[in-house]
Amino acid sequence: MSNPITVLIVDDHPIVRKGLRTLLLSEERIQTVYEAANGLEAIQIVQQHHPQVVLMDLVMSPINGVEAIERIKALQPSTRILVLTAYAEDDKVFPAIKAGASGYVLKDIPPEELLQAIRDVASGQSFLHPTIAARLMREITQISTPLENSEPLTEREVEVLRWIARGLSNQEIAAQLHVSERTITTHISNILDKLHLANRTQATLYALRKGIASLYDDENSFLST
Fold it and tell me: DSSP secondary-structure letter at 150?
């Protein structure tokens, strides 16, 4: 049998958690399932038990799923997070991706596909619900092209852009490149200025469109090279 998987379910509805637990424990590889009723509980469980995969709802209080993702990735960068939500709107999808989610599925997904998504994410791959993949690709094709007289990016700026597309924070990029966080902040500001982009999400979509990053990756995030 392949390596066992430990999963944390994060959802504020007890009946949803119970149903998911029953489903997950039907999968031979999933041997341990933890539960959290909100993002704060999830952070505590991640710190205590280090689950491999977190199945994360987005609409919760006192902190929402996106903030929980950000905090968990800051504490345990190796934790793989699969968003499971009813929402496919841009204001939910892109922040979750930016925060470091490794996959995004909707609650209408068939049970076997959800199990496959968990297996994929646990093994270092990524999984996107078809609706989300289509939305991302549409955004990639619609993002504006930089002006012809735009100043080209330097080799280091392209490298930083690739790490942005992987969903890494400034601090994480600085660690990867062995430079200060302030240096990375300057690089990102220069990238946005040169490409006439408003934020990191647009930069990620630009990187995807231009082939600087690709939609799927088997290392960290589905937004990477």
Answer: P
* 176-188 pLDDT tens trace: 999 999 999 999 9
Q: Is 53 exposed, middle or buried (0-12, 13-18, 19+ CB in 10 A)?
A: buried
Residue 217 and residue 202: Cα distance in Å, rounded? 19
* Domain ranges for the chain: 5-130, 143-209
**53, 8 Cβ separation under 8 angstroms:** yes
100: alpha, beta or left, given left = phi > 0 and alpha = psi -120 to 50? left
**176 token code pair:** 């990867």
Query: What distance in Å separates the CA atoms of residue 163 and residue 203, rounded to the nearest whole number?
Result: 11
- pLDDT band (50, 70, 90) for residue 44: very high
Tell me the CATH class for 5-130.
Answer: alpha beta
